What we know:
Largest sheet: 4 strands, parallel
Oligomer: single chain
Number of strands: 12
Order of helices and strands: EEEEEEEEEEEE
Distance between the termini: 40 Å
Shape: globular
Structural class: mainly beta
Radius of gyration: 15 Å
Helix content: under 10%
Strand order of the largest sheet: 1-2-4-6
Strand content: 15-25%
Amino acid sequence: xxxxxxxxxIIVTNIGEIYSNCFKDCSSLEIFMIKDYILRSxxxxxxxxxKSLKKLEINVDNVYNPPIxxxxxxxxxxxxxxxxxxxxxxxxxxxxxxxxxxxxLEKFDISKAKEIKSRCFFNCHSLKQLKIPxxxxxxxxxxxxxxxxxxxxxxxxxxxxxxxxxxxxCY
Length: 171
């Protein structure tokens, strides 16, 4: 729909569904807000490459909307400026590279996650703390590689496998 658009800076909308690649590579998009519609997942590559995106708010004014449960592959990949994400999240699955390269992202709640995929937070330099929930049994390859600001980490006893480079270069 808007893929590759380089002029739009702010989008405030009430759309109820956003398809894959919808805002991919919108290089000037800084703020995206959905006020009052049900959005159950963030689809594949929706905001990938939106390097100017700083603020994302979805369904924050309506407590009756169901939570967002899925963040698909590369949904926010390369959103290097994003620091503010506010939504009714109860994310169960975070797919590959969902937040890869989100350099300014300081926190994201994964407390309801049941599964995280490889490279999901790869190169998130500003991510400071992480509490992996008891529902996670495996930390995949390069999941948190290069999270250079990580100062607090909790890995529960239920984790039975930490794959190669899951926390590489977190210094």
